[in-house]
UniProtKB/TrEMBL annotation:
Catalytic activity: a lipid X + a UDP-2-N,3-O-bis[(3R)-3-hydroxyacyl]-alpha-D-glucosamine = a lipid A disaccharide + UDP + H(+)
PANTHER family: LIPID-A-DISACCHARIDE SYNTHASE, LIPID-A-DISACCHARIDE SYNTHASE, MITOCHONDRIAL-RELATED
Enzymatic class: transferase
One GO MF term attached to the UniProt entry: lipid-A-disaccharide synthase activity
Source organism of this protein record: Comamonas nitrativorans
Gene3D superfamilies: Glycogen Phosphorylase B
Keywords: Glycosyltransferase, Lipid A biosynthesis, Lipid biosynthesis, Lipid metabolism, Transferase
Role: Condensation of UDP-2,3-diacylglucosamine and 2,3-diacylglucosamine-1-phosphate to form lipid A disaccharide, a precursor of lipid A, a phosphorylated glycolipid that anchors the lipopolysaccharide to the outer membrane of the cell.
Keyword Lipid metabolism: yes
Catalytic activity, EC: 2.4.1.182
Name of the molecule in the record: Lipid-A-disaccharide synthase
Chain ranges passing through the membrane: none
Top-level taxon: Bacteria
Length: 390
């Protein structure tokens, strides 16, 4: 058996796969903790710009795994995704990294982790799939796939333990990144916004198909609000891959000069805004940590929607509502997400009479922030080190 002290001194080779923008962000923070432990760490696999800034060698971009919906849209790109997974699996089984870390993207990662684990490679899944919200049958896939699960929410390790799955609560890394008291004035100055006029942040998502299904009604709702509230300032953060399509949509809808399209800067937009119209996903948790009221919405292909609804276990889809156990903020989904309905619901957050309601939501989100605040990067790195050497 290798000397543990010697093994600890040798930086491990770590393979990782992160899907989409949120997974790239989480992976970047995890790499911070791993690099503090092993400054010469070599990491590679599938990732995005946040990971690459930390020396990660991206064999494929995480954008290749970004799909929208539950079924139909995935099938349209299934061959490409399966080919990527097959190629990566063969490479990792040959090179045999010390550990494989799958970050979110459970449809891609759990199958890959299962195969790697069966071949003797240790596996970690970062972000417990939301088996408490929908698709509870995934617990069997998790048990077969992961030697250890890193959980973002405090109730998840106990839930996994009931199914004989080892897990650690590491807190949510976004709770460290986002300040407990965001500076709205500074954010508005950074973005060149009027500090006194109301600001709406429109966040339609980071996937290509979300431009088709979500961005259009969101921007149409913004157009209605601009008619009702002439002083309203609208900002639209865009990930690099979606900047041009969103710019074209803004132009098509006659909103050039009225909607400020940002290159990234979603956190600045959330810090600056009074309210956000936002697609369901990790971004809703970011908005909650910024203590901002929101209207959560989502639209997808009707077939995907029907399939997803059958798997849903809770009456909410937005993370702030799931974690709060009630409709803390409104949700307008699928057929409900018309431009008029979205505009009406957003406007209720922006009227002067909403002050007490806005303050109550901020108080709820502050309590949520405290519950998620841990040294995630260090705790995650320690859990991986323990798996490797203890």
């Amino acid at each position: 058996m290798a000397d543990p002290a010697l093994a600890l001194a040798v930086p491990p080779r770590i393979a990782m796969v992160a899907g989409e923008t949120s997974g790239d962000l989480l992976s970047g923070l995890l790499l911070d903790g791993l690099l503090r432990r092993w400054p010469d760490l070599y990491s590679y696999g599938i990732g995005g710009p946040m990971m690459q800034q930390r020396g990660f060698q991206a064999l494929y971009s995480s954008e290749r795994l970004a799909v929208h919906g539950y079924s139909l849209e995935v099938l349209l790109r299934l061959h490409d995704i399966l080919q990527i997974r097959k190629t990566l699996r063969q490479r990792l089984q040959t090179e045999r990294p010390a550990v494989f870390v799958g970050v979110d993207a459970p449809d891609f990662n759990l199958g890959l982790e299962r195969d790697l684990r069966a071949s003797g490679i240790k596996t970690v899944h970062f972000v417990c799939p939301s088996i408490w919200a929908w698709r509870p049958e995934r617990v069997h896939k998790i048990r077969a796939a992961a030697d250890h699960v890193l959980c973002l929410f405090p109730f998840e390790p106990q839930l996994l333990a009931q199914h004989d799955i080892a897990a650690s609560y590491v807190g949510h890394p976004l709770a460290q990144v986002i300040p407990m008291q965001p500076d709205k004035l500074a954010a508005r100055q950074q973005l060149g916004l009027d500090i006194d006029a109301p600001v709406l942040a429109v966040l339609p998502g980071s996937r290509r198909a979300e431009v088709q299904y979500i961005a259009r009604p969101f921007l149409q709702a913004a157009a209605l609000l601009l008619q009702r509230l002439p002083q309203l300032q609208v900002v639209l953060p865009a990930v690099p891959a979606l900047f041009d399509p969103l710019a074209a949509l803004v132009q098509e809808l006659g909103l050039a000069g009225q909607v400020r399209l940002l290159r990234g800067q979603s956190h600045q937009a959330l810090a600056a805004c009074d309210c956000t119209l936002i697609a369901s996903g990790t971004a809703t948790l970011e908005a909650a940590l910024f203590k901002r009221p929101m209207v959560i919405s989502y639209r997808m292909h009707p077939i995907s929607w029907r399939l997803m609804r059958r798997k849903q276990l809770q009456p909410w889809v937005g993370l702030p509502n799931i974690l709060g156990g009630e409709f803390v903020v409104p949700e307008l989904l699928q057929e409900q997400a018309t431009p008029a309905a979205l505009a009406d619901t957003v406007e209720q957050w922006l009227v002067p009479e909403s002050g007490a309601r806005v303050a109550a939501v901020a108080q709820r989100f502050t309590a949520l922030h405290h519950s998620l605040l841990r040294d995630t990067a260090t705790l995650a790195a320690q859990a991986i080190e323990k798996l490797l050497y203890v």
